[in-house]
Structures are given as C-alpha cells and as structure tokens.
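Quick review question:
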C-alpha cells in the first residue's frame, strides 16, 4: 500500500514535471496532466488534433524533462514494420565468419513518439501492438525485452481529415490508455505562442526525473488502495456503455454498437489511482474515477448507424453515463 512519503514524492515530481512542460507548452494544462497521468499509470497515449496545435511539441517536451532515452518515428505510407522494430542482418567477423545479427529499430527506447500514426499502413501500425502491450518485440523467432519505463505517445489528425490516412483498428485503439483531443487555441493563447516562438530567447528545460525514479513512482501508483465500492463504480461505468447490458444507459442503447472493453476498467482504476495521489489521498474514490472517464473511454466506444448519422460525440455519451451512474455503497 502506498504511504504518505510515497504520496508526497509523487506530488512533488508530478508538479515539477508539469511546471517544466508549461514553460514550452502553452494553454494545455489539462492535457499535460492527462499525459503525465498516462505515463505514471504505465499506459500509452494517443493525441488527436488538427495540424499545428502542438501534438508533437507535447511529446517532445515530455521527453526533454525526463532523463530518459527517446526517439521519434514519422509515420508515412512507405514505412515498413522493420523500419520500426529492426531487422536481422548478415555480419562478418574479423576472421571472415558470417553470422546473423539483430539491428534494433527505434522502438527500442524509453519514450517513443509515433508521429501521425494513421499515415502508415495497417501492417506497419500493428508492428507497435506487441511493444505497447507486452513491452517486448518478437523478430525472427526471438523475443527482445524493451527497457523500462516504456511509453508510447502517438499523434493523429482528426478522423474527418482522413485523406491519405489509414484508420487505426479497434484492437490497436484499445491499447491506448487515454485518447486526448487538443482544442483550438483562443486569441490570448495564440498571442502567447507568438511571443514565445518568434523572439530570441527559448525556455530552458530542467530534467526532473530519471528512469529508476520514474519506475519507483509508477510502483507507488500501483500501491494505491482501491476500495470495493470504487471498483464496482468503475465496472458500472463500463457496463453502462454496453448497449446489450442490463446496466446500459438510455443513450448507450440508442447510439452505441459496442461498449468499452475490460481495458477501459483498467484505465479507469489506474487513472483514478494517479488522481487520488494528486488529491493527497491514499485510496481511490468514485470521483477520482469519474475524473478520467472521458479520457479512458472515448476511444473505446463504437457508434451504431444512428449515432453516426446524428453526429453523436462519444464524450457526450460518457458524460451522461457518468451522470447517471451513482457510486456504489457498501
């Protein structure tokens, strides 16, 4: 179980990381909190926005404030799985003897930025599945462990801007802990961006956390207690999105074809643990779970024909499910 010392260390580290990232990333305070929540919960993050709103900048800034290895892959239609995972090549020793050697690809790092992931073919997209879920890579009949911590941040343009893109299959979307959307900036935000990016000086970022420290804080998150009532609340939220379930909400029955997978429950619980620590608590309450419901579930719901025709947003459905799901009482 997490203790008070672990809680305070976590709060200090989270606050320091947030502060450093806000030196560069303008306006998106909630998005920064969600990205850090995903990182400390041990998940992967998908960020969606129109071009030029800072998707890549957020990922790069996170890598800069962590003392961890990071790599970036620009996804394109001609990108092959071997370009990501690596390939086995024939090498020759000094004595002239030939042997096979595995040359590691960019997936072997701590923080991986998968930029514009929907620009690559489904075959290449799926090359990340094992790395994201199992933290290992299998090539040529051999398995290779990835370094820990391991964190994938993928970016994509909105689905309505689909020209030249390949939609992510549901199985891969489900591997992402949170899906985040960046809103368009207002006048004040645009003015601040202009001031920060067109002048002489640039913000100097301090590296806040090392790999071993990050792993220790991730263990602190796992140690947060989850009462049975909070567990049942997370399950009720997920079942509320299943149109065929007895617990399904009215809007879910009307507009959804499929509800969230069990990974949605995992994301709710782990995200709730991070929010509990930030709230100064050592156990998760239903309100901590409600606070991450939109981010954890919005990409795990599949609209039916009626929902698509009426332009229903999954975020609105989740909000209704949260509003209608009363916390369980022991």
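Suggested answer, residue by residue:
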């Amino acid at each position: 179980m997490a203790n008070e010392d672990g809680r305070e260390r976590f709060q200090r580290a989270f606050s320091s990381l947030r502060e450093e990232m806000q030196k560069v990333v303008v306006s998106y305070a909630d998005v920064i909190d969600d990205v850090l929540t995903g990182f400390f919960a041990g998940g992967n993050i998908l960020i969606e926005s129109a071009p030029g709103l800072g998707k890549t900048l957020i990922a790069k800034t996170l890598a800069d404030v962590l003392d961890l290895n990071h790599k970036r892959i620009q996804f394109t239609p001609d990108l092959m799985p071997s370009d990501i995972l690596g390939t086995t090549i024939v090498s020759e020793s000094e004595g002239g003897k030939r042997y096979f050697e595995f040359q590691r690809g960019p997936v072997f790092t701590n923080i991986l930025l998968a930029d514009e992931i929907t620009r690559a073919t489904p075959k290449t997209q799926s090359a990340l599945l094992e790395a994201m879920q199992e933290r290992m890579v299998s090539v040529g009949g051999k398995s290779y462990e990835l370094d820990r911590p391991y964190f994938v941040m993928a970016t994509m343009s909105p689905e309505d801007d689909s020209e030249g893109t390949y939609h992510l299959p549901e199985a891969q979307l489900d591997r992402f802990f949170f899906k985040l959307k960046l809103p368009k900036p207002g006048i004040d935000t645009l003015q601040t961006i202009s001031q920060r990016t067109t002048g002489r000086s640039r913000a100097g970022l301090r590296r806040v956390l090392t790999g071993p420290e990050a792993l220790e804080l991730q263990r602190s998150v796992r140690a947060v207690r989850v009462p049975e009532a909070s567990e049942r609340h997370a399950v009720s939220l997920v079942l509320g999105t299943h149109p065929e379930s007895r617990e399904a909400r009215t809007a879910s029955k009307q507009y959804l074809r499929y509800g969230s997978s069990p990974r949605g429950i995992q994301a709710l619980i782990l995200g709730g643990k991070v929010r509990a620590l930030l709230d100064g608590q050592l156990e998760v309450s239903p309100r901590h779970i409600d606070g991450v419901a939109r981010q954890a579930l919005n990409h795990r719901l599949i609209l039916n024909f009626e929902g698509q025709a009426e332009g229903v947003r999954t975020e609105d459905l989740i909000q209704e499910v949260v509003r209608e799901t009363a916390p369980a009482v022991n």
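Why it works: The two ends are 21 Å apart (CA to CA). Residues 1-196+208-223 form a domain with the Rossmann fold fold (CATH 3.40.50.300).
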